Known about the structure:
Elements: E1 2-10, H1 15-30, H2 35-38, E2 42-50, E3 63-65, H3 70-78, E4 83-98, E5 101-110, E6 115-120, H4 128-134, H5 138-141, E7 144-146, E8 154-156
Parallel strand pairs: 1-2, 6-8
Antiparallel strand pairs: 1-4, 2-3, 4-5, 5-6, 7-8
Amino acid sequence: MNRYYGLFLGTAIPFKHLKKIIRKFNYDYYDKASPERQQDFLEIIPEFHISHSHDPHHWLECIMVEPAYLNRFLEIVSNLNFTFILCQYRHGHFQTIMNGIEYSVTSYRSLEGVVYLLFEDEDDIEGNFAKKLRTLPLENNSPQPLESKRAKNINIC
């Protein structure tokens, strides 16, 4: 079975719809497939990065998608109001300091080879960092390329 991370980025994710989609793929397709066919399914591990939500989004189960239905799954989630990025299973963690504030950074690499950096201020209990990100101009709310001599395809989220 091949594993991937599915990055869900946005300010509001329709969890009700997403749970229905996951149930459809997991129970209608995966659970009804033979054990031999189940071995070919892709396991997408959801990683949610929502700028202002306190929803219990961390508890959604993995999404099981048959390779033949992957494009259909991507089409369905692209119609919802968030950004979804399918990434390689490996990822990295590091700490960085900007303007005197320490951030935890997680890096993911999409299947297209683009690196996404997700910043989190773990000491920001009130969510001020997330509020600032949410109030950036609309064109800055989606992943933006970061120019670098060493890494050409890096996005900051």
